[in-house]
Amino acid sequence: MKLSKWTGRYVTIIRRNEERTYSARIEAWDYDRERLLLGPKPVYIPLEEILKIIPADPGPFRRGTAAGLAPRPHSVGYVMNSELQFDNAVQFRSPIMIWKGDRVLHYRSILSGHDAHSVTLRTGERLEKQDHRFVVRSIRGN
Predict the structure, then answer these.
(1) Per-residue pLDDT of the chain (142 residues; tens, 9 = 90+)
(2) Tell me, what DSSP letter sits at residue 18?
(3) Residue ranges of the chain that CATH labels 2.30.30
(4) Contacts of 16 (CB under 8 A, 6+ apart)
(5) What CATH number is given for 72-140 in this structure?
């Protein structure tokens, strides 16, 4: 039985032995153990207990990636000046645009750290703060 078309889709699962139904996203099918993995919290349901699978929309009670609405960068960018802005960009893994003069060096980069004079990118590249402009695009979630 080929069930891979359901992977990543939101469904409602009706089980044979229980009155409870599950509404979640199908993360994977475990064909070896004959069970289904629902997410984002790992819930395994044996295939023989599934009575019916119904396509469903993400519910209004779900937030973030659980609702299929991943946070995305806002269209407005801000030039980073203060240490707090750099700290927040590192902590929240915000996408950063890096300029040197009038040239864009990195359109979308992630910072892994910074100190008073330099910034370290996730790739390991170190850039001096005085030679570059760092523009952060805040993350817009739901």
Answers:
(1) 567 777 888 888 888 876 778 888 888 888 888 888 887 778 888 888 888 888 887 655 555 555 555 566 667 788 999 999 999 999 988 889 999 999 999 888 889 999 999 999 988 899 999 999 999 976 665 4
(2) -
(3) 7-60, 72-140
(4) 48, 49, 50, 51
(5) 2.30.30
Instruction: Report how far apart, in Å, the C-alpha atoms of 20 and of each of 51, 57, 70, 80 are.
Output: 12, 18, 28, 50
Secondary structure class of 90 (helix, strand, coil): helix
**Residue 95 exposure: Cα atoms within 13 Å on the Cβ side:** 14
CATH code assigned to 7-60:
2.30.30
User: How far is it, in rounded angstroms, from Cα 136 to Cα 81?
Assistant: 10
